[in-house]
Amino acid sequence: MGIRFTVLSSGSTGNATVVDNGETKVLIDVGFSAKKMEALMKERELAANSIDAIVITHEHSDHIKGLGALARKYDLPIYANEKTWVELDRQIGVIAEENKRVMETGGFEEFGTLRVESFGISHDAAEPVGYCFYEGEQKLSVVTDLGYMSEKVKEKIIDSDALVLETNHDVDMLRVGHYPWSIKRRILGDKGHLSNEAAGEALCDVMTNKTKSVYMAHLSRDHNLMDLARLTVNNIVQERAPESKQLRLMDTYFDRSTKWDVLDSE
Question: What residue stretches are annotated with the Metallo-beta-lactamase domain (predicted)?
Fold first, then answer.
């Protein structure tokens, strides 16, 4: 059937996405308790024991909160690079050695016909990554938690059928918000989070006629609004790429999952 995916939830309180090609189901991050993860998957008629593997982007709690518990309960293999594993070992409890899999940054793993590639990104974590998923000619890219979109990252995610892309904050809302300046500086820095404007600009550089949908992810509940993120990104895209009529800007949610999105098989 090709690739389908659902963003189970996304935001500062937790993140998780499932990618499924009909034979293999891969979970990206486990940012909620095992019980909450089971409930989110149930919304999409997905059983937790049907997951074949977990891939981790980085070790921050909103991406690994329930990782240890879920992996132990369902005997799931976890893939992360070595530096991330150093941090995971300190946070998630005992994991069976056979389920601790090293996937180096820039490497590939194959799960049947589903091919997964990791790539480095800029964030204040040990060795954070994004992922591209390939099935035949189909490509899904998932990239959040990055301070800026480097040319190397753009090269990895260009020409995707669909993207899960960070639109974390509106710069003006963040600047006048209640956070201490030290935290604002971190978010705005090169190892922080991508703003609506930066996401829109980057999207114009990586989208092609093949790109059909972009899921705006990891929104700040304090310094962004979904309508504002969508308006900002759309305005930039329409100004720089007015011919991109087929592009759909899709919402993600901090408290519920998105509907399954099936990539075009053509």
Answer: 13-218
How far apart, in whole angstroms, are the C-alpha atoms of residue 146 and residue 38? 28
Q: Residue 69 contacts by C-beta under 8 Å, 6 or more apart in sequence?
A: 33, 34, 93
Of 225, 216, 217, the residue nearest 173 (C-alpha): 225
Alpha-carbon distances of 144 from 63, 106, 119, 218, rounded to whole Å: 11, 16, 12, 7
- pLDDT digits over 112-165, tens only? 999 999 999 999 999 999 999 999 999 999 999 999 999 999 999 999 999 999
Tell me which DSSP letter residue 263 carries. P
CA distance 90 to 112: 31
Interatomic CA distance for residues 256 and 264, integer angstroms: 24
Q: Output phi, psi for 251, to 5 deg.
A: -80, 155
- Taking the model in full, what pTM does it have? 0.96
Answer for the pair 262, 2: CB distance below 8 angstroms, yes or no: yes
Determine contact, residues 181/233, Cβ cutoff 8 Å. no
Segment 245-259, tens digit of pLDDT: 689 999 999 999 999
